[in-house]
Each structure stands twice: as C-alpha cells, then as structure tokens.
C-alpha cells in the first residue's frame, strides 16, 4: 500500500490536471481545448484507478479485466448514441 506522501502527490497532480482543463479553455480554441481535456481526463482516470482504487497493486489480469469492462461500456455508449440518431 502506498504511503501518505504518494497520496498527497497524486492529489496535487489531480488538482493541477483539473486546473489545466480550465486553462485550456481560456487560452486555446475550443477544438484544441476539448481534445486536451479528454487527454487530461484519461490521465486523471488512470491515476485514480491506479492509486486510489489500488489497481496498481493488483495482478495484471484484474487490470486487463477492468480495462475490458471500460471498453465494453464505451461500446454500449456508442451504440446508444447511434440508435438515438
């Protein structure tokens, strides 16, 4: 299990990533800011899942299973969006 210093560092990084989203929309065009926000969101998801949900300490098979579940949710979301149109 990670120590308090690691959790504090991850918290600061998450705070910086959240601030970065605001900065992108202030200083860049909408398209660039949206793409950068998606990249930052993926980075935040990986940090939260890895450290706060302790997936970094789990066997790789569980991590792959979680990744597959996220991919399936993505596919269902795309299919639902396609059926609405």
UniProtKB/TrEMBL annotation:
Protein's membrane topology: Multi-pass membrane protein
Keywords, in A-Z order: Cell membrane, Membrane, Transmembrane, Transmembrane helix
Chief localisation class: membrane
Spans traversing the lipid bilayer: 6-25, 32-52, 64-84
Any Pfam family matching the protein: COX4_pro
Record-linked InterPro entries: Cyt_c_oxidase_su4_prok (IPR005171)
GO cellular component: plasma membrane
Protein name: Cytochrome C oxidase subunit IV
Subcellular locations according to the entry: Cell membrane
Organism: Natrarchaeobius halalkaliphilus
Protein origin, superkingdom: Archaea
